[in-house]
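pasting for the record
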Amino acid sequence: MITSDVAVIGAGPTGLFAIFELGMLKIKSVVIDALDFVGGQCSALYPEKPIYDIPAHPKIAAQDLIENLKAQAEPFNPQYLFNQQVVNVVKEGEWFTLTTSKNTIVKVKAIIIAGGCGSFGPNRPPLQNIESYEKSSVFYMINKRDIFKDKKVVIAGGGDSAVDWALNLADIAEKIYVVHRRPKFRCAPESADQMYNIAKLSGRIEMVIPYQLDGLLGDNGQLSHVVVKDLEGNTKNLEADYLLPFFGLAMELGPIRDWGLNINKTHIEVVQNTMSTNVPGIYAIGDIAHYPGKLKLILTGFAEAAHAAYDIYNIIFPNQALHFEYSTTKGVAAS
């Protein structure tokens, strides 16, 4: 059993900043995430994608932002529980008891849900026996870039994730095939231009257009070829060690739907000035939270984390007045 002050559900950017805001108020936190690394969608889907609306950063790569947020939270010694989902929440007196999918028991006095748009899973391409290749040679998210060194990689998709990873792996993979049904990509024009330039000048990237995935060949979970088909039904085999299909995510609230919260479609209704839900002690911040006039921006989520932390202070320290101080005055002291 793990006992802490607050459970932060979701280790994306707003969840990471919530650790900092809580820590500045001497509130301890444990962080639970279904992925096996911090960063949420920023790290899993578009680590190289530039973000332009973070204050004091004219441009910052998504993964660099996550690394900075993680470093900012480190002085407060958060405990991370990766690769597990909260499946049950019970309130007994002043304590919440959370049970995860790995049967970890967590006891806290407050909960911050910072799960983006909820739990998410990949939109799998309808390929026969694709499950037998998953986690060995078919991946929907990338954690360890080095496994693709000197390998032949097929990347399928037309959005930011496909283009960002084609660029990110171009300098280490032996060959990258980018499979898309049309020449136009749904990404930053600069990124698409860079990808086409690499394909033209070095040949490390080969554009397989207009094609779509049609089948997989291999044995014992290891790919040998990816079969692609054009619009006329003609097929060809691409020699491949790995397939990375990036067709977006299927979003769902998952077990959160059963916690008695006021749900608006796939979002949680909150009071804007405190980020509190209709269940006392449970808060929601970031994209999953909804209130009138909500702006779905990372910087909005950062402000929401501060609102939630300051309201939670009254739960953790009910008899202590909170005297507001700027960080420039009190500095950062590890909890």
